Amino acid sequence: MAFYQVNNVYKNFGDVKVLKGINLELDEGQVLAIIGSSGSGKTTLLRCLNFLEIPDKADIYLKGENIFSIDNTDSAAASNADESNISEVENGKNIQTDSEKNQPTHAKKAKPEKISKEMRKLIDSKRGHFGMVFQSFNLFPHFNVLKNVTLAAKLKYDAHAPKGFARWSKEAKAARKQAMQEINEKAVALLERVGLGEKLNSYPCELSGGQQQRVAIARALILQPDILCFDEPTSALDPELTREVLKVIRDLKKDGHTMIVVTHEMQFAKKVADKVIFMADGIVEEEGTPQQVFEHPVSEKTKAFLAESEKSIDEE
Amino acid sequence: MSFADVNIQFLEAAKYTLGLFFLTLLIAIPLGVVICACAMSRFRPVKWLANTFIWIIRGTPLMLQVIVVMYGPGLIFDVPMKNRFLAALIAFAINYAAYFAEIYRGGIMAMPKGQYEAGKVLGMSKASVNGLVIFPQVVKKITPAMGNEVITLVKDTSIANIIALPEIILTAKNIVATYAIIWPLFYTGVFYLLMSGVLTLFFKWLEKRTNYYKA
Ligand SMILES: Nc1ncnc2c1ncn2[C@@H]1O[C@H](COP(=O)(O)OP(=O)(O)O)[C@@H](O)[C@H]1O
Ligand SMILES: [Mg+2]
């Protein structure tokens, strides 16, 4: 089984079917590029993979383990009326984390934000596997670069630190100090890796878009996600800044990071990706190596899309 | 009545003006948080109740509210309000809390969704996101609007003269009536200008303190 495998992702917004059964798999250290015209569901897919949206149906495997499964589609509702169909496989045993067994059957129609506590817990415990870099950076504007990168890691340490009196013991305090020091050092190293070693004390508003995006990448990396997702990381940037961000992503590949990159940069997809997926209307219309997808596309839709993007490059 | 005498009387009266001002802020700032939380609650009845409350408070004159708090208990429940200052304080605190709640809500709604989502994908708890990411930015965002309200409050304290709270305006009116001179009433303006001047400087300083970043 692949390092990361995602099966049958479905997602509706109300009556609009946005994702209609997406499958993808990725080996460790590989880069997957997702291309496709706007509105084809690329963002929604990444958001589902990062649990910013709860898919209606999906099975997600990481390192051979089924880390997340859900099926709230109508067919599942019909066959399995009083379970919420969230399951988690651990140690080869299928644990049904069915939220309250006595939940009324119409809970299927509950609004998406009304997800059960068990579900939220499960999701929160799996979040750390995934990182996300947004189109609009979403840095914390009131923190400097260093704090943007260290914040989550420090909070994570504190969340797992001893509770109560133990927390204030000499040893715990010393350990904490040491840990915070290490997080700072790690952040500095990461910021140097993305070429921002000089900007530790700058605020996001003092940086160019490309620099901000590189901070966002360092911020995601410090948590050491297994899969790092990028949603059009350069579409808000002009060409020069785009290049510096894409270079960082290329460097990350050399470091062995497994990544999924939604992009409109076809040259980047061709050169850096190990696999390319072309999405159209919520399905995977075409997939393969960059060579297969770009040089020998099978689907007419892919051909049309590629021709269109060639044209827009020529126009520039 | 000499100029010095008027000043002494006004300074006496300023105790009520400033007392009402500071205590109103002390109560209304946190009470506004509670009202705002209710108004933004997902639980419909609570949300509806809070919004109706805000509508009533903002939709009627503060002067009327002061009168209702002062004379309402006596007329309706036969327990007359004994303390004028307390009556004014209750009316002011509730009134300003409703306005503050709306300012808070505006500030929270203006936060980009991306800030919550960034925190979420970084595995931060809801409390961490709200406390460390959202709250400081909301404070910065609402400081100018809060400044306006607070300066309005200093002038609004004069409304309490309607229930005979001896604040600055009522004191001036009494002097005018007793000594048949008009200038003390005009002179109150200097006191209000001084107070609002200090507040203006304070809020300028506060805004500057968070100037180190742009949202
Ligand atoms: N929160 C949402 N509510 C309703 N519709 C949405 C929502 N998010 C996305 N959509 C719809 O889903 C479709 C796919 O959007 P998106 O995933 O952003 O596509 P892409 O990233 O490929 O441009 C669009 O038609 C969009 O309008
Ligand atoms: Mg998109």
Adjacency order of strands in the biggest sheet of chain A? 2-1-4-5-6-7
Mean pLDDT metric of chain A? 86
Radius of gyration of chain B: 21 Å
Low-confidence stretches of chain A: 80-112
Return the CATH architecture of chain B: Orthogonal Bundle
- Number of DSSP helices of chain A? 10
Question: In terms of per-residue confidence, which ranges of chain B show pLDDT below 50 for 5 or more consecutive residues?
Answer: none
Looking at the structure, the CATH topology of chain A is: Rossmann fold
Query: For the terminal residues of chain A, how far apart are their CA atoms?
Result: 43 Å
Query: What is the strand content of chain A?
Result: 15-25%
Tell me the overall shape of chain A. globular
- State the CATH architecture of chain A: 3-Layer(aba) Sandwich
- Helix content percent band of chain A: 25-40%
Number of strands of chain B: 0
Query: Radius of gyration of chain A over alpha carbons?
Result: 21 Å
Helix and strand content put the structural class of chain B at: mainly alpha
What is the approximate shape of chain B? flat
Largest interface: A-B, 26 and 23 residues
Pairing-aware structural class of the strands and helices of chain A? alpha/beta
Number of helices of chain B: 8
Name of the level-1 CATH class of chain B: Mainly Alpha
